[in-house]
Amino acid sequence: MQNKINILFIINPISGGKQKGQVPTIIDRYLDKERFSPNFLFSEHVGHAKEMAEEAVNKNFDVIVAAGGDGTINEVASVLARHNKILGILPLGSGNGLASHLKISKNIKDAIEIINKFKIVQIDSATLNGKFFFNLAGMGFDAHLSALFSNSKKRGFNGYFQIGIKQVFTYKPQLYELIIDGVKYTRKAFAISIANSSQYGNNVFISPLASVTDGLLDVCIIKPFPLLKLPVLSYVMLRAKAEESSMIEIIKGKSIIIKRESEGPVHIDGEPLLLGDTIEVNINPLSLKIILP
Ligand SMILES: Nc1ncnc2c1ncn2[C@@H]1O[C@H](COP(=O)(O)OP(=O)(O)OP(=O)(O)O)[C@@H](O)[C@H]1O
């Protein structure tokens, strides 16, 4: 008989605002144990999933499953991309942007079935000032919101929505200078998202035609807009119509430099970070092995 594959599940107990105590039991029930030998660890703080993933790759784990949202995936995948190991996803986050783009079911039993089938594909990753991201990074309103969200006790889609709706009334657009594959653009923007995948999560699309295997990033510039047009912007994103809308400009590229008015927050896969006024983003084509449907 072939050796079993050592697979580690790193579970974020707080992602998505749902209890995860039963998750190991459920995985144990549905995972193909002829093929896999499972282990389970819960993250205890920000950065812990990354530390555990580092330890695991040094201990012969070839597959690590991030059981959480985009932040958990980011911590685990940042390690796996460097070590050429395989990522699995159980989407148990609030937005689940990357998992939604990749059509990984949010039903845990179905998501485990995807792992059982063990189809491995390579996708692009990107770095922002040297830090990996896999779904979306951004600045402007997005980053402002994710900084507030991470300091609040609210989680889940409703949490995001409640904070977002208050902030949209007071946020002021910023001026940016962008150099995308050597071409210069000056734009005032409400937000700039740099998209590897198509969506923030919860089927809110910023770049509906984005591909995680095209070797390109989509720089999505949300132009300043009067508040009266907020429902239109919401419609555009929920109906995946950014390409047809005059409210969003999308420029594709591999190498992006953005100079902004001042230092401030950015977000990397939804997790906020304070950075200086110059941001550099690059794509790493087909650099992450991942289990996909
Ligand atoms: N035990 C813990 N206590 C507090 N924070 C944790 C713990 N374990 C992990 N974290 C942090 O929780 C944050 C949020 O995780 P994650 O992004 O997976 O969930 P989410 O925000 O609910 O989902 P999504 O990003 O898909 O919207 C990450 O920054 C992660 O580092």
From TrEMBL:
<feature type="domain" description="DAGKc">
    <location>
        <begin position="1"/>
        <end position="132"/>
    </location>
</feature>
<keyword id="KW-0418">Kinase</keyword>
<dbReference type="GO" id="GO:0046872">
    <property type="term" value="F:metal ion binding"/>
</dbReference>
<dbReference type="InterPro" id="IPR017438">
    <property type="entry name" value="ATP-NAD_kinase_N"/>
</dbReference>
<dbReference type="GO" id="GO:0005886">
    <property type="term" value="C:plasma membrane"/>
</dbReference>
<keyword id="KW-0444">Lipid biosynthesis</keyword>
<keyword id="KW-0460">Magnesium</keyword>
<dbReference type="Pfam" id="PF00781">
    <property type="entry name" value="DAGK_cat"/>
</dbReference>
<dbReference type="Pfam" id="PF19279">
    <property type="entry name" value="YegS_C"/>
</dbReference>
<keyword id="KW-0443">Lipid metabolism</keyword>
<keyword id="KW-0067">ATP-binding</keyword>
<keyword id="KW-0594">Phospholipid biosynthesis</keyword>
<dbReference type="GO" id="GO:0008654">
    <property type="term" value="P:phospholipid biosynthetic process"/>
</dbReference>
<keyword id="KW-0547">Nucleotide-binding</keyword>
<dbReference type="GO" id="GO:0016301">
    <property type="term" value="F:kinase activity"/>
</dbReference>
<dbReference type="InterPro" id="IPR045540">
    <property type="entry name" value="YegS/DAGK_C"/>
</dbReference>
<keyword id="KW-0479">Metal-binding</keyword>
<dbReference type="InterPro" id="IPR050187">
    <property type="entry name" value="Lipid_Phosphate_FormReg"/>
</dbReference>
<dbReference type="InterPro" id="IPR005218">
    <property type="entry name" value="Diacylglycerol/lipid_kinase"/>
</dbReference>
<dbReference type="InterPro" id="IPR016064">
    <property type="entry name" value="NAD/diacylglycerol_kinase_sf"/>
</dbReference>
<protein>
    <submittedName>
        <fullName>Diacylglycerol kinase family lipid kinase</fullName>
    </submittedName>
</protein>
<keyword id="KW-1208">Phospholipid metabolism</keyword>
<dbReference type="InterPro" id="IPR001206">
    <property type="entry name" value="Diacylglycerol_kinase_cat_dom"/>
</dbReference>
<keyword id="KW-0808">Transferase</keyword>
<dbReference type="GO" id="GO:0005524">
    <property type="term" value="F:ATP binding"/>
</dbReference>
